[in-house]
Amino acid sequence: MATTPVPDWLQKFTGLNSWPDMNPPYIPLDFINFANIPNIPLRAPGTCPTNRLQCSFDCFKCVSHDDVYTCPRLSQTFDDGPSKFTKNLLKHLHSKATFFTLGLNVVKNPDIYLDIKNRGHLLGSHTWSHKFLPSLTNEEIIAQFEWSIWAMNATGHHLPKWYRPPYGGIDDRVRAIARMFGMQAVVWDHDSFDWQMESKPPQRTKKQILNDISRWKDQGRGIILEHDVYKSTTDLAIEINKIIGPNQMTVAECVDGINYVKEF
Ligand SMILES: [Zn+2]
Question: ipTM of the predicted structure?
Fold first, then answer.
């Protein structure tokens, strides 16, 4: 299937007849109340506030009361897709998993997105184009969420309940905005750093990752962060799936929550 068409209702609402590039335009929404957003200074990727008051996960591993950060069963999650490598992963996954998708990739790969959905996995938002959210203005953060949600709505006919901030970049300003969309943040307690197999030169080997997996399996719980955008990481994900086994949960199941804010 080609790109997801921009639905009529969205064309009428936004005045646009094509999907945005890396910098989606801000479209005002009547349910966003700017008075609910705390006044937290913007910060560049790799920089941190001097204290923990803003509850940054990327800087301090701080989690808020409604963040999901662990799971009663050890469970795999996949970020950054859907991609052409997701297809083969889906064929070999023998458990339910959660996929945090980029809006840009959702509209480019609608058939793969629907394959994920139809196989009973859970889909969440990973924003429109993977920016470090604490560096963006309120309007830019809203644009990252709204276009991602519209991509998922137009392609999968649902509104996401769960989102994962790119780079774990989240603080109380990002959370306040996401809550107005009815979404909750999902972070992780086990980072596979699988993408580092693709660094030049590679910073991480398959063996190192599998060692971590067996340690986490002994502990028996948690959310593993993986990526479905490389052959290496999806091939390894299939091996990890065999090791952990079918007894995994989606992040909604981890907290006994709903799958989507709404399904159409
Ligand atoms: Zn990501």
Answer: 0.99
